[in-house]
């Protein structure tokens, strides 16, 4: 009865003690080296495969450590921002805490805020008018938008830097279910904010800013 490769593989899987009972075979069997094609023993080939597996695991472990360190750093920066927002006793203090921490700690070069549907009226740019179109767009946002800027009105919020901005993150500000404003982050780097990036931290940032502003907006 002839056997194909699948039959041999199935037999070895069903008989794990085969090489224990036929140890001499290991000294005579040879396979191709995975890189140079030279004939090597089956044992040596297994060692190479094991080393490669260890290398992959070491790389993955190093990557997990790096991600953990990055998350710890973000958590520390966010904690500093939270403390600043907690002690901010008026709108100007909230704005200063937001701008300074995002620009200095998180290295976000351009930050803008627009607020509407509020009983608090001030003369600063944060309370400038927004179009109905943008208001409807923000009201329909279920999560932050990250990607290339598609709204010229938002780009104008960044002033003279607006034409240089290549990527934005737009975060809705909510009081209960109602959107009352928008936080806009901008960068000249097209890859700084991109559609596939995670939005957990910027979502929490929007919630923190919303809570801080609600104390001032009434």
3D architecture notes:
The chain is elongated and about 90 Å long. The longest helix is centred in the N-terminal third of the chain and has 46 residues, at 42-87. Helix 4 (42-87) runs antiparallel to helix 5 and helix 4 packs parallel to helix 8. It is 51% helix and 16% strand. The chain has 218 residues and is α+β, with helices and mostly antiparallel strands. The protein is built from eight helices and six strands.
Attribute tags:
alpha+beta; 218 residues; elongated
The radius of gyration is 29 Å
Characterize the overall form.
Answer: elongated
Can you summarize the main beta sheet?
4 strands, antiparallel
Which range best describes the helical content: under 10%, 10-25%, 25-40%, 40-55%, 55-70% or over 70%?
A: 40-55%
Q: Compute the average pLDDT.
A: 84
Strand order of the largest sheet: 3-6-5-4
Helix run count: 8
The tally of beta strands, per DSSP, is: 6
Give the uncertain stretches in residue-range form. none
* SS content category: alpha+beta
Between the first and last Cα atoms, what is the distance in angstroms? Answer: 87 Å
Question: How would you spell out the order of helices and strands?
Answer: HHHEEHHEHEHEEH
Strand portion, in percent? 15-25%
